């Protein structure tokens, strides 16, 4: 099905036309019929000659109901712009057109109605010129009368051609339904309605409201219960939700949108040129937006207070009165909440970053504007700002990840990733120089040094000659990180010399300290294979364990600790842990509480 919203000045015949086309009454309220005025959005539908089904969202034209008009037009992909032949272009014609221009609506048609009251020619020419200025120049024009029915067949045919040209939305797209009506049905609870622009909603789906989760209990499309519906469609959803949903809220696929109240945007001023003097200022303008600092931002059926901070040129930062679920490329309509101006719709604001970084330093605003002014709303530009984003973050911000992730589900700005690759060896080298006794830079320390959000990213940056071993980044063999500082190396040499005569008589703790070999130094020497540490404070020359096993193998088997001690010319202090070490290495094994034997190495 398709959805088309109406637009146009009050009393120009929008509802009459919808009624004539569909046979349904768009003005449901008693007050609307009494006053002959649309107040709330109206809904009506029909089948076109091609068989395509078309639903109308009929908007009010009265200037007091502009917010309602915006809620109807916002989510609709196309518009039927209505101008009365007998009145021609009027203030809300201008204002509604400015809204369509701000929202970037590109599909529609012009219905010049009340053609039974006046020649539609002049009004058509006048309206066509205005529409062209707002980027709707190519739309079809149809003269029609809602009263006599003249031209209705032509209008139906034109609507068929219009909907045939509309782009087909993606049924797998994330769902965002801006709620335009909420009501309670006795016995079945809360029902919300809205336009589903893309994606699919099915019975049983769990969606998200600002107040929390909402389960879809039933789906109706044009008053028919259906198991599921894909956009574009008008939908009525029966929800089970923790808090009552409200008009202006969005019902969305959980995790697929960024709920945000700060966005960086590109401002596009709309409406008639401020100074039509030489007539050269027509068309979209991207000059520095001279906007009031406080406006109302509209998207879908939502309206939020909005503070505008110009950053430079057409780029601005908007602070919204409440978080909204937004994507890159979304367009917010900015209007002056006051009633003084003739046309209150001022600009469209295209979201360039739904999660912009704080601007702290002096000059940061200008730099940010320079960065964004050429930016296309895509993953590459988001990564340029955010440097590293998970695939899920990118999707929630509104764009599909491009290219391969650098690690896990992380995507990186290529330039940033190259810089990180270049920085890592230096950081590892500095760490090794400052802490020569440590085996390498812990991955976690490197993560913090490089300002990375995930340790896995560090691992992906490590390339030969660097390697990750036991949670540390080590340099390849032969690198100075593998060597001991000269003072420690000298102390180790002295120790080995002292032990040359009686290699199994480990020095006392005091002697180690005298030599300057504290636990850290010993650990470093053990790591590079210069010393063997069999227990706390029991240090032998490297290889002493293998030599001991050789000597013990010559003893009658099994043997006691004392026999081993005598054979190795050692002490009990050393022998007990040394034998335990040999047990652990599988070189000896216990026979009973007192004795061991050597094992033939397998
Ligand atoms: N003669 C004639 N009268 C029309 C035609 N279309 C609408 N009207 C009359 O114009 C008046 C306004 O029509 P509506 O359809 O309510 O206008 P609207 O654009 O929906 O007005 P709002 O929703 O309040 O903006 C009514 O009195 C209609 O009967 C038409 O084609 N010919
Ligand atoms: Mg109406």
Summarize the structure.
This protein is an alpha+beta fold and about 600 residues long. About 30% of the residues lie in helices and about 30% in strands. Helix 11 packs across helix 12 and helix 17 packs across helix 18.
Would you kindly provide a written description of the structure presented here, covering whatever features stand out?
With 602 residues, this protein is of the alpha+beta class. 31% of the residues lie in helices and 29% in strands. It has 18 helices and 31 strands. Strands 7, 8, 10, 11, 12, 14 and 15 form a seven-stranded antiparallel β-sheet that branches. Strands 2-3-1-4-5-6 form a six-stranded mixed β-sheet, sandwiched between helices. A six-stranded antiparallel beta barrel has the order 16-19-18-17-20-21, surrounded by four helices. A hairpin with a 2-residue loop joins β25 (466-469) and β26 (472-475). The radius of gyration is 38 Å and the shape is elongated. The termini are far apart. The model is unreliable at 275-286 (pLDDT under 50). The structure holds guanosine-5'-triphosphate and magnesium ion. Residues 14-15, 38, 58 line the site of magnesium ion.
Provide key terms for this protein:
elongated, binds magnesium ion, seven-stranded antiparallel sheet, alpha+beta, single chain, binds guanosine-5'-triphosphate, 602 residues
How would the blueprint of this fold be written?
Layout: E1 2-7, H1 14-22, H2 30-35, E2 42-47, E3 53-58, H3 66-73, E4 78-84, H4 91-103, E5 108-113, H5 120-133, E6 140-143, H6 152-165, E7 176-185, E8 189-196, E9 200-202, E10 206-209, E11 212-221, E12 224-226, E13 228-230, E14 233-241, E15 250-252, E16 258-269, E17 294-299, E18 302-312, E19 315-326, E20 331-335, E21 345-353, H7 364-373, H8 379-386, E22 388-390, H9 391-397, E23 410-412, H10 414-434, E24 441-442, H11 443-449, H12 455-461, E25 466-469, E26 472-475, H13 486-498, H14 509-514, H15 519-527, E27 531-535, E28 538-541, H16 544-553, E29 559-560, H17 561-568, H18 572-585, E30 588-590, E31 595-598
Parallel strand pairs: 1-3, 1-4, 4-5, 5-6
Antiparallel strand pairs: 2-3, 7-8, 7-15, 8-14, 9-13, 10-11, 11-12, 11-14, 16-19, 16-21, 17-18, 17-20, 18-19, 20-21, 22-23, 24-26, 25-26, 27-28, 29-31, 30-31
Helix pairs in contact: 11-12, 17-18
């Amino acid at each position: 099905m398709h959805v088309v919203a109406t637009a146009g000045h009050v009393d120009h015949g929008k509802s009459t036309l919808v009624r004539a086309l569909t046979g349904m009454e768009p003005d449901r309220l008693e007050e609307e019929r009494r006053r002959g005025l649309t107040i709330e959005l109206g809904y009506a539908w029909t089948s076109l000659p091609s068989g395509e089904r078309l639903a109308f969202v009929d908007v009010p034209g009265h200037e007091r109901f502009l917010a309602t008009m915006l809620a109807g037009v916002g989510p609709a992909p196309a518009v039927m712009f209505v101008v009365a032949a007998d009145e021609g272009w009027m203030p809300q014609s201008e204002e509604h057109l400015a809204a369509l221009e701000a929202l970037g609506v590109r599909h529609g048609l012009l219905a010049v109605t009340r053609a039974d009251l006046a020649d539609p020619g002049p009004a058509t020419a006048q309206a066509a010129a205005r529409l062209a200025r707002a980027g709707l120049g190519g739309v079809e024009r149809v003269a029609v009368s809602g009263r006599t029915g003249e031209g209705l067949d032509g209008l139906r045919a034109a609507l068929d051609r219009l909907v045939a040209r509309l782009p087909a939305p993606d049924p797998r797209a994330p769902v965002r339904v801006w709620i335009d009506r909420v009501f309670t049905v006795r016995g079945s609870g809360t029902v919300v309605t809205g336009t589903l622009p893309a994606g699919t909603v099915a019975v049983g789906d769990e969606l998200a409201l600002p107040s929390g989760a909402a389960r879809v209990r039933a789906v109706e499309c044009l008053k028919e219960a259906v198991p599921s519906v894909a956009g574009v469609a008008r939908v009525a959803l029966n929800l089970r939700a923790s808090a009552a949903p409200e008009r202006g809220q969005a019902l969305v696929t959980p995790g697929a949108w960024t709920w945000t109240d700060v966005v960086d945007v590109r401002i596009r001023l709309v409406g008639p040129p401020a100074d039509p003097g030489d007539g050269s200022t027509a068309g979209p303008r991207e000059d520095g937006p001279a906007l009031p600092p406080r406006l109302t931002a509209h998207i879908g059926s939502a309206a939020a207070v909005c503070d505008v901070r110009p950053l430079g040129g057409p780029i601005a930062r908007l602070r919204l009165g409440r978080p909204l679920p937004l994507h890159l490329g979304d367009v917010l309509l900015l209007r002056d909440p006051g009633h003084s101006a003739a046309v209150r719709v001022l600009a469209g604001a295209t979201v360039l970053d739904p999660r912009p970084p704080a601007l702290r330093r002096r000059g940061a605003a200008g730099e940010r504007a320079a960065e964004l002014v050429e930016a296309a709303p895509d993953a590459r530009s988001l990564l340029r700002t955010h440097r590293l984003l998970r695939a899920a973050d990118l999707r929630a911000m509104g764009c599909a990840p491009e290219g391969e992730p650098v690690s896990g589900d992380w995507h990186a700005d290529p330039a940033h990733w190259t810089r990180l690759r270049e920085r890592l060896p230096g950081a590892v080298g500095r760490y090794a120089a400052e802490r020569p006794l440590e085996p390498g830079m812990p991955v976690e320390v490197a993560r913090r040094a490089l300002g990375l959000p995930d340790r896995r990213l560090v691992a992906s940056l490590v390339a030969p000659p660097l390697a990750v071993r036991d949670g540390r980044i080590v340099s390849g063999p032969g690198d100075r990180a593998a060597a001991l500082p000269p003072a420690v190396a000298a102390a180790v040499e002295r120790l080995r010399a002292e032990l040359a005569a009686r290699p199994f008589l480990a020095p006392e703790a005091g002697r180690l300290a005298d030599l300057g070999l504290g636990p850290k130094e010993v650990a470093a020497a053990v790591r590079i294979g210069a010393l063997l540490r069999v227990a706390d404070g029991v240090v032998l020359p490297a290889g002493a364990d293998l030599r001991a096993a050789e000597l013990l193998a010559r003893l009658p088997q099994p043997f006691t600790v004392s026999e081993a001690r005598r054979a190795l010319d050692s002490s009990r202090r050393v022998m007990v842990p040394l034998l335990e070490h040999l047990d652990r290495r599988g070189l000896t094994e216990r026979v009973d509480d007192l004795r061991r034997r050597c094992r033939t190495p397998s």
